[in-house]
Description:
This protein is an alpha/beta fold.
Amino acid sequence: MSNRHLSICALALAALIALVPLVRAEVANTPAPSRPDVLVVTLDGIINPVASEFILKKLDDAEEMQADAIVIELDTPGGLMESMRRMIKGMNASTVPVIVYVSPDGARAASAGAFITLAAHVAAMAPQTNIGAAHPVSAGGGEMDETMSDKVTNDAVAYIKSLAKAHGRNEQWAEDAVRKSISSTADEALEQNVIDIVAPNLRILLDEIHGMTVKTASGEVVLNTKDANIVREVMGLRHRILDIISNPNIAYILMMLGFYGLFFELTNPGAIFPGVVGGICLILAFYAFQTLPVNYAGVLLILLAVVLFVLETQITSHGALAIGGLVAMFFGSLMLFSEGGPLFRVSISVIATTTGTTALFFVVVVGLVVRAHKRKPTTGNEGLVGLEGKSSTIVDKDGGTVHVHGEIWSAYSDEQISAGEGVLVESANGLKMKVRKKP
């Protein structure tokens, strides 16, 4: 090899050695592949407007953060059909894949929960969970007439079958869940093509559905969930407070406390504290009523009861107004919430306790009023009648003085009373009293 060739090789080698640090720097500056983000929220409780609002907000958040998927961990006994439909509309309109995961072990997706699970892009369950029992109930939770029952049931069947068909799931099972209230375990649901997967925990679920193709509002999407970065979000303080007071029993108790506070303020003007507490409780109660199927005829009956109670303290009705108030309160409480079945009814024990406490209160109050009317006056001129004393001077028709109740009084009598004799007050007029000899 000539000297010229050796020089060229040496120059090439030197150039390669000079490029090595630059290559290393470029490799070091190249960003590592980012992990997919999965938003996870928990829906544990009754499906009501609060739950619906929370889930719809999280669906929007998932789109804003460009999450690869959103997981709804579900455990519900059911709830309101309208709230469920709003939630499902939001899921259908979502461009982010929605995964409904019935968990943890022991959870259920009953009634409205079954609809929500079937509406998901991916339906999953933990091993020891169940799904089904989706038969609609009447407005008051009792029996509907045959025509109305058929209408409601057929509407629910059509809706749940359309959800199952849209996601390639078992339509016959969906219909039976509504018509026959059937319920299935996680393994049975998987075997009958009701759900897509059974997974013992969230991490395994995300790894196993990785690569699955689902159809969202924006078209087909291949799930990218393996080793995903899980972003958990919980209900904010506003939703948590509203969810607590949206419990029919809590809302009912708040309303009754509000009415009691106003009652005490009206019957004892200037007390202030009962009125303030009552006003706050009433505002919270009516705020909660926005999320509940309220029958305002029930509210009016309870309000009538309060009016009758106030009148009872102002008018001597010997308990008639109070009895009318108790009857109005009891029936108003029974019909306060008009839809949603047993989940949205005030507990009969709460109604009985409230009505019983009110009855006891007015029995005591009315009893005290009656005794007060029968009691002899202890003040004023009337309070002097019947008191005993002693004459200080001779007392006759022309007058005299007596010592009564620790005081010297001018007095007169139809009979003559000697000084020092015992006397009994018959009447008093101004500063002069009529007396007679003490027997």
